[in-house]
Amino acid sequence: MVSVAVELVFDERLYSLEAVQKAAYRFIHLFTTDMSLSDGKIVCSLKPTQEQTPEGLEHYVDEFKKEVLDQHLRIKIKAETEDVRNLVLGIAFSNSGLLASE
Question: What is the side-by-side order of every strand in the sheet holding 41-48?
Fold first, then answer.
């Protein structure tokens, strides 16, 4: 069983700090997380909240990496589709009768 911290380094050109923070929140039940920024890198230290087997720890660290990518892509897609979403919402509310007409 191990409870040693694992350090991951993410390049800020590829991943956003927000994505790493969101992944850390999703894994809060498995890891305590310390983050820092250094020379264009996001340094993320994951310490298991419970002792893990080496295989279990490796599995959860791999899942954390996948979650960072997932969160990064969600943030990117949200930004890219914001104009369309706002347009759809505007049309929906304009036809709903919720907006008072002058």
Answer: 6-11, 41-48, 31-38
